[in-house]
Amino acid sequence: MFLPKQRKIRTFALLIGVITFTTFLFSYTFRDPSVDFFRHAFRLSDDFLSKGQCACPRCVAEAEDDPWFAERFNQSVHPLMTRENSVLSEETFKWWQWLQSERRPANFSEVVEELFRVIPDEVLYADAGPKRCRTCAVVGNSGNLKGAQYGALIDSFDFVVRMNQAPTTGFEEDVGAKTTHHLMYPESAKDLDNTTSLVLIPFKTLDLQWILSALTTGTIKHTYTRVPSRIKANKDKVLIYSPTFFKYVFDTWLEGHGRYPSTGFLSLMLAVHICDEVSVFGFGADQYGNWHHYWEENDLSGAFRHTGVHDGDHEYNVTLQLADKHKIKMFRGR
Ligand SMILES: *[C@@H]1O[C@H](CO)[C@@H](O)[C@H](O)[C@H]1NC(C)=O
Ligand SMILES: *[C@@H]1O[C@H](CO)[C@@H](O)[C@H](O)[C@H]1NC(C)=O
Ligand SMILES: *[C@@H]1O[C@H](CO)[C@@H](O)[C@H](O)[C@H]1NC(C)=O
Ligand SMILES: *[C@@H]1O[C@H](CO)[C@@H](O)[C@H](O)[C@H]1NC(C)=O
């Protein structure tokens, strides 16, 4: 009696399985709305697994599972400057002023006040929660993007973050055409279209005066070198990288390696703190070990790897560790 009964149950279970699978396959093939039920069910279980941190299958901010990440990740340090968080601690202000010291800096708080009369003073992207799934691509400038054909993929992300001189025109197939955020400093500035947020990384008070000038009167033409006196950018979308966050990245994530973090690393950290899912393109050397830009031919290894300003090896190490812990996804190009 025992064996046949078990066999009956097994047959029954098998039958149910086959029916479920066929239904699934059928509805998938014919785009039946019941697929959404399955998707929904899976998404719900993802939410359950991710403890409701975000609506993506995996959330960057889920820190509980990784002590290395949890020790470093601090979501209460806001990456972008507002009037309110622009008041720096004495320690931060000292460190920040030392980065590119000025002989006679203007009054910082007065400059900030003037600046926020021109650019918006809003707290952005602080809406992390169980309903949000913000996917981001951070696109570095490495030659490993040449011929990588990532264009369509990169353009499919909610945010696409680029930096410094990065062009897209003529390179769309490899790097995409969309840019939601472009990080730069006065000496690396370029014109943007009006749908892109210019994210200024300030290294000195003069940089804050420069962005104001470049958007209005065009009077500042020189910092420690010639800089564009005017810049095309939508002033309603200009954002300022917070010096407090800058120092947090340096102290906490780089543990003080190098003189200060590179634009690439600062961009990556911005994304890690405002996105739920982060994909990284164009970081590191190409397949031949060359460190050049995707729009240039020559090897620049002398130019930006061994200046001592940035600790490229350490930054890359931290980046690889983030990938190893599934906090970011690396696309290595060619
Ligand atoms: C996170 O940053 C806030 C604001 O700077 C600070 O008060 C807090 O101590 C930090 N938390 C940790 C765990 O370091
Ligand atoms: C900067 O300006 C503010 C407001 O005008 C003033 O209170 C402050 O003392 C000034 N700081 C310095 C260092 O001069
Ligand atoms: C953005 O640029 C386009 C084309 O140059 C223009 O038609 C549009 O009015 C601009 N929008 C804003 C908000 O400036
Ligand atoms: C990278 O990090 C690991 C783990 O912290 C460490 O053992 C290794 O020495 C680091 N390598 C470099 C090149 O800094």
Automatic annotation (TrEMBL):
It is found in: Golgi apparatus, Golgi stack membrane; Secreted. Its EC number is 2.4.3.2, 2.4.3.4. Substrate binds at Q100, N141, N164, Y224, Y260, G264, G284, H293, H310. GO terms for molecular function: beta-D-galactosyl-(1->3)-N-acetyl-beta-D-galactosaminide alpha-2,3- sialyltransferase; beta-galactoside (CMP) alpha-2,3-sialyltransferase activity. Keywords: Disulfide bond, Glycoprotein, Glycosyltransferase, Golgi apparatus, Lipid metabolism, Membrane, Secreted, Signal-anchor, Transferase, Transmembrane, Transmembrane helix. One of its GO terms (biological process) is lipid metabolic process. It is an enzyme of class 2 (transferase). It catalyses: a globoside GalGb4Cer + CMP-N-acetyl-beta-neuraminate = a globoside MSGG + CMP + H(+); a ganglioside GM1 (d18:1(4E)) + CMP-N-acetyl-beta-neuraminate = a ganglioside GD1a (d18:1(4E)) + CMP + H(+); ganglioside GM1 (d18:1(4E)/18:0) + CMP-N-acetyl-beta-neuraminate = ganglioside GD1a (18:1(4E)/18:0) + CMP + H(+); a ganglioside GA1 (d18:1(4E)) + CMP-N-acetyl-beta-neuraminate = a ganglioside GM1b (d18:1(4E)) + CMP + H(+). Belongs to the glycosyltransferase 29 family. This is CMP-N-acetylneuraminate-beta-galactosamide-alpha-2,3-sialyltransferase 1. It comes from Gasterosteus aculeatus aculeatus (three-spined stickleback).
